Amino acid sequence: MGSSIEQYVRPLVQYLQLGRGLSPWLVTTMLLFGWFAISKLLKTTESSSLQSKRPPTLPSGIPIFGHLPQFLWNGSSLMSRAAKYLGPAIPTKIKLFSFSTYIVSGPESIASFFKENLYLSATSRSIVVMENAFGCPHEHVDLFRPRVTADGRPDDIEHMIHRSIQGGLSGPRLETLTAQFQARLAESLLGQTDKEHQGKWIEVDDLHGLVQKHVFAAMVHTLFGSYMLSLNPTIASDFWEFNKSVRSLFMGLPPWMTPGALKMRSKMLESIKRWQRHAQENCNFDDISDMDWEPYYGCRHVRERQALLTQRGILDETARAAENFAFMWATNSNSGPAASWFLLEVLQDHQLKEEIEGQLLQGHFASVESSSLTDQEIVCIDPAKLMADPLLQSVYAETLRLRVAVLVVREAVRGDFSFCGWQIKKNEVLTISSRTEAMDQTTWGTGGPDEPYPLHKFWPRRFLVDPADSNSGPLNIQKRAKKSSAAEGSSGPYFSMDGLAGSWIPYGGGRSLCPGRHFAKRKMIITTAVVLSLYDVELTGSSPMVDLNHFGFGTMPPKYKVAARMRRRVPNKS
Ligand SMILES: *[C@@H]1O[C@H](CO)[C@@H](O)[C@H](O)[C@H]1NC(C)=O
Ligand SMILES: *[C@@H]1O[C@H](CO)[C@@H](O)[C@H](O)[C@H]1NC(C)=O
Fold it and tell me: Would the keyword Protein biosynthesis turn up in this protein's UniProt record (predicted)?
């Protein structure tokens, strides 16, 4: 009920708390890591100085609204100002109407933020998102709460879920997923350029969209099997449509304000239910317990998830579909655009493009297998070789540094506690902004005086340390001096993330560090390798710009459509 003012205010507050606050990478993490999250018994940081001080508030707020107008106008700039206000070690409060949060910044404070597992939690938020964004029926949503035993330890089932996620998206099974993704992506791309087009330029008005479409298809095929797509031919564009308005669902806006989003959500849930029924009817779990991939459920992890849902007592069809939907969203909404950015960055930089293309076409990353059927040699890109390449890794890290902007939000759930000597009260909220840290001059290097590479510019070699060049590497001089000679004796440039633990945080960190990060990295690098090995691609319009309106939500998409042309490479006949 409540007054009508409250009705307008509440969604706004929820927006700020959930929409802006709960970054997709974090949601991703929460949903993947999901139920496990809450209560690992780790050492407490119960403060010895109980009289610790309260953190300051950023001046320049206006009455009633606080910093809300500044936040809506330019969130990125507000976050940096708060971070810098009295220095990075001091959490600073900003007020967004009736909601306020402390901004935490600087590598040391961020390390404490990620280590603080007892007092800070994000769990309750992810439960709300299950309902608001993914359409889990209200009466079932409590089933998704992490189970704990009477003495506060994670229940056994939480361990099983955790294990399944860890094992499913990393280690040896990662190889299966990678190979599957690579093959499907090539197949999907080739499906759109028939033989007649070979050697002819095709104009593309939205390269980002095109890459998204194929990456999504390959990803869904890899994770959920072949029937998710064949039973639901429009699922890619439905997903796209849904994601356009996902922000308003995260906000918890009332249904009359988001009719389009809700319609797309129901359509997605119906599609996923169709897949669930089809798999149940046609595939018997017990027969295939050790297969890594099969067409009905897709990868083994997805199959295990279905069994774990049953074990948890989540039997309602829609609740199960909501969970599968959340997983689909988590594995696509951010890594898809990130994969596309990787390609766009390479295409924008002629020298970089030539270098990578050259290596690809000369077979540096390939293993050659001869096919007995066609008596032809088949060149296969070898993911292991790609992943070991220092330059590709640096482009990957730089792409995420510049194109991902997440806000990681935690709430003091247990009670008052001391955070780095500052008193935080129960239910207060702490936030870190990945972009603020990614732009921090006190940590990052910016090349040398002759060849500066400012932090707002993409520098493909930012993460390469060249022992012969004192201006190379991601850290600035002061930080580097502290971290002397990490890899002395190394001859050429090498990829390095040393000293960046609290500064490069596109995947969040600590307990909720995104478990999908290894696969996301492969997905990004492989996408560019597959596209460039099959096609000549050239950008034909102006350079892609990032759309900062999506600040706080994860991978920010390009602001305008990216025009390009592409042409199928004519395979070498040898
Ligand atoms: C936000 O502020 C930053 C500087 O803090 C600036 O670089 C950026 O262009 C601004 N963005 C918008 C949309 O005004
Ligand atoms: C999905 O939406 C989020 C939030 O607006 C955005 O950051 C992301 O790039 C979108 N992803 C796709 C695949 O459109």
Answer: no
